Every structure is written in structure tokens, then in C-alpha cells.
Amino acid sequence: MRPIQMVDLKQQYTKIKSEVDSAIQEVIDNAAFINGKAVTELANALSLYTGSKHVIPCANGTDALQIAMMALDLQPGDEVITPSFTFIATTEVVALLKLRPVFVEVDPRTFCLDPAAIEAAITPRTRAIIPVHLYGQSAPMQEIMDIARRHNLSVIEDNAQAIGSHYRFPDGTVKKTGSIGHIGCTSFFPSKNLGCYGDGGAIFTDDDALANRLKMIANHGQSRRYYHDLVGCNSRLDSIQAAVLNVKLKRLDEYIAARRAAADHYDQAFGAHPKIKTPHRASYSHHVFHQYTLVLEGVDRNGLNEFLAGRNIPSMIYYPVPAHRQQMFAGFGGADYHLETTDWLTERVISLPMHTELDDEQLHAISDAVLEYLNRT
Ligand SMILES: *Cc1c(COP(=O)(O)O)cnc(C)c1O
Description:
Order of helices and strands: HHEHEHEHEHEEEEEHEEHHEEHHEH
Shape: globular
Strand order of the largest sheet: 1-9-8-5-4-2-3
Bound molecules: pyridoxal-5'-phosphate
Number of strands: 14
Largest sheet: 7 strands, mixed
CATH superfamily of the largest domain: Type I PLP-dependent aspartate aminotransferase-like (Major domain)
Radius of gyration: 21 Å
Number of helices: 12
CATH architecture of the largest domain: 3-Layer(aba) Sandwich
């Protein structure tokens, strides 16, 4: 059996090697390393794929979130509603910009923002909401957009884990995640569903004026060369990374199908087990399984992790400490929050290997090992 990894990028690369290698070589031959042809091609292809009018590639997903918030011209002390149950980048940039992160609960079934908790957290200083499409499933966007409309708030989607997913509105309209809020942000970190071979990210919007600001901020606030209208930063996507992404974007739906097939296997294996909750698949979302995350009930999670490790099967806790309990947010009253669902989930989640290259033998080895441990304790 091939060794089992959380993410197997090497095996994926072997299947697209000649195409990727020649795309990279072409960038080198043309020596247009920054904002070259491959970057424009990627922006256009992503616009077509997501239905977002404007796509602004940038250096990474964290920058994408930061630039989004800079473009909205938020003022120090303005409140931004975010989940605590997320990767740190979502909330870190809020604090970096001297805004105030307001941590709210997630729905324990979907791991995404709970609309009722958002509503309860709104104050006169609230300016924005950042729904995170965690683990690859869309947050309940109709409810979130309705709340935003009623309170005149901006919505920035953190789509780093869910590119290719979509949300089905109650009226039947379907929109790709990242193209629903005022701004969408994604990451091309290598292990993401659409990953490059280094750092990368992109920002999405349908709004022409916002797109203009986002583009300028990502490039030193420049309106034309050496004329700087806004305080910005240097956050561009390398042409080599864009060249890799152009090859992989064509296969994204195929990659998503492979992840969903692996998730189907796990669902079948664990669905009936009384101590395991398999990922809930919300009827409104197409789950793209960036992670396959179980909620364990009455199971020694560390014991399971070690048992699996003994069989050379990795497993991970995403994430072991929620944002409101991070030392980083001590000065933001993090410790004063009582987020029972977030804490409850944090103690019980475990993610199994999930990537595009898992074969039946590997999947059986993983699910058999998990069940063996559970049935023995
Ligand atoms: C990966 C990730 C980011 C940050 O992306 P980088 O490219 O690593 O900066 C932000 N939010 C979430 C939810 C992520 O998973």
C-alpha cells in the first residue's frame, strides 16, 4: 500500500507533471515573473469558473482578507463579526488592522456561522461579517446576506477552504462560494483544494469600484505607475504560481469529485456508529471536503490519534485552540467570551486524511483502523 498522508501532493503532481513543467518553463522562458500572462489568464479563468465579475490575484489568502478589509475603509474600533472556530488568519487580520473581532458561535452540525448568533452580536459599531466556509461547506448565505442587508453591513467570505463549492438559495439560484458576499477571498496554499506550489491567493467581487480599490491596494495603492492614491501593500501572485494554477483549475471539478468519493467511503464506514458524527451535508451546499472532520462522542481522541499513528495513518485536529482562546486576543477580551459550542467542538473534532489521491486500499485501511479502535474501547 502507498503511504497514507493527510494530503498527497506528490502523487497528484506525477499525473500532471509534463503539463505543469512546461507551463513553468514557459514563464521562465518569457521572464515575466510578476503579473505575467499566466496571471491574467488565471484571473479570467477564475472569473468564468466562479461567476465573479472581478478576480484580483494576490500573494496569499491572509493578504486577500486584509486587502478586502482595507478596501472597505473600516475605521479603528469598528466591529467585525467572525467565527472563533476557524483558522487564525480569518481573525488575525481584523486585529492587525486595529478593528475589533467579535467572535460568534457556529452551528455544531455545519461548523459554520450561526445566523442567530450573528444577529445577537450586532451593535451600532458593527461594520462587517466574515463567514468562513469551513472544511469546504458553504455557510448559510441567504440568512447572512439578509442580516447584512438589514443592518447595512459588508460581507467578506473566507472561501480559503471551499473554492468550487456552491450555495443554493431558497429560490433555486445557485452561486459559487466566494461570489456571494460583497468580497470573497481564497487561498492557493499548496494543501488547499486549488493549491499552487508556494503561496498564493485571490480576491473576488462583482463591484467595479471595490475591484478598483482592491487592485490598487494590492499594488502599493497605485492608480498608475508611481502614483499612489491609497495606502496599500505589495501582494501580487507570481506568474509561476499562476501557471501551476492554470493547469490545476482545469481539473478542480475532477479533484472535488475525488474528495467527495473519499468522503462517501468514510460516510458509509462510520455513518451507523453511535460514537461518531460524520460531516453533515447541508441541503443548500455542495460540500467540497477540504477536510473530512468527524465529531467524536465518548471517545479518547488522543488515544485514537496515537492508535492511528501506530498504523502510519495521520490524523489532525483542526483546530486545537479556537481564536477567542488564543493569547493573541487576550487584549481583545477573548477570555471573556463564552462560546460553548465552539469549545465543545474543539474538544471533539478529528480530521482524517483527505485528498485527491486516496485509493480504496488506503480508505479501507483508514476506516478499518478507526472502527477497530472505537470497538475496542
Ligand atoms: C488557509 C486559510 C487562510 C489563509 O490562507 P493563506 O494563503 O495560508 O494565507 C485563511 N482562512 C482559512 C479558513 C484558511 O483555511
